[in-house]
Amino acid sequence: MVALPDRGGAGKSPRLSLLAAPGIVGRLDLVSPLEQAAVSLGEELRQAEFGQRLQELHPSRRADQAPFGSLASFEVNSGPAIRRTLQTLHLTQLANEPLTLSDADQAYIAWITDAWRAMQRIAGRCWVPMRSELRTMIVDQDDLGPNASHYIPASRVHEPGPALRFAGLESTRVQEAIDALVVACRSTPCYQRALECVSRMEQNSDLRTRVDKRRKRIVGELQPPERMTIADADNRARLIVRHGYENADGDVRVVADAVRAHNELVNYLLFALLGFAETSRTVVIGAESGPMRGRRKPRMLWGAFRNL
Question: What pTM does this model have?
C-alpha cells in the first residue's frame, strides 16, 4: 500500500509525490513504519486548525483575486507550504522589489511564521538528544536561506517558546501522532548513525575544533567574490555546500555525512507532513488499484531512505 496526498482538483490531474523506495523499477514499495507515522500525523494535522488554515490560505485560493505582483501571485508556483512564503519574501527582498503587503498579508505572514516555528519544533524532536548547537556545526542546505535552500530554512535550529501550542497542535491526538513519528524516526539507522557521530564530536574537543574550522571555511566561501545574479549566486552557494566536505579529513567527513543524511530525512518528513496537511484527502493505492505511471521530480529528498 502506498498513501499519497491528493493534490488534484476539479478538472486537474493529481500531482503524485510517491513515497516509494528509490531504485525500484516497475512497482511501488510498501509503506514503511516511519512513512506510515508521517501519513498518520499528516492526516491529524489536516483535521486540526493547522491543516484547515493551510488549505484556506493556499495561494491557489487567493491568486484569482490578487493583483499581479502580490504575495499570492508570486507564491502560487513556489513549492510546499511555509517554504514558498519565506522564499517569495526573501527573493523579492534580494531583487530589491519588496511587495506591497495588505493587512491580510501581514496577518498571513505572521501565521506562516508561527507554523514554521512549529515545524522546527517537530524537526527538533527528531534530533533529540543531539543539541542544536552541535547539529548545526555542520553546514547543510537549510543554512542557505529561504531562496537558495531546498529544505525548510533553519530546520535544525531550536527556537525557545511554546511552538506547538498553536493552531490545534496541542491537542492530544496531534501530540500522540507527533510522539509516534518521533519514535519511528529515532528508530532508524539514519538517526542512530547521526547520534553516534554527534556524540563522538561532543566528547572530542579536537574533533569539534576541526569541524568548526571546516564550517568557518565553508561559510567564508559562501560570500560572493563579485556581483552576481540571484540565480547564479544561489547555484554557486548550493554547489559550495554540496561539495563542502569532500576534501575534509576523514573524521570530519564522517560526521558531516551522518548529520546531513539525517537532516535530509527530517526534511523529507516535514515536506510530507505539509503536503498531507494542506490537501483535502489521502489517496491510498492498494492491490485493487489499476496500472499507474509515476513521474519522479528532479530534486526529491530520497537519499536518506536508501538504507532504512
Answer: 0.82
Summarize the confidence of residues 239-245 as an average pLDDT: 94
- 132 CB-near residues (< 8 Å, 6+ apart): 124, 156, 157, 158
**Residue bearing cell 508521517:** 38
What is the Cα–Cα distance from 155 to 290, expressed in whole angstroms? 38
Q: Are 201 and 207 contacting, i.e. CB atoms less than 8 angstroms apart?
A: yes
- Compute CA 284 distance to the chain's CA centroid, rounded to the nearest angstrom: 23
Distances (CA, A) of 288 to 59, 214, 255, 284: 35, 52, 44, 10
Q: What is the distance between the alpha carbons of residues 297 and 160, in angstroms, rounded to a whole number?
A: 35
Give the pLDDT score at 100. Answer: 79
Mean pLDDT score, 72-79 = 68
Identity of the residue numbered 129:
P
Confidence of residue 57 (pLDDT cuts 50, 70, 90): confident
Q: What grid cell was written down for 222?
A: 559562501
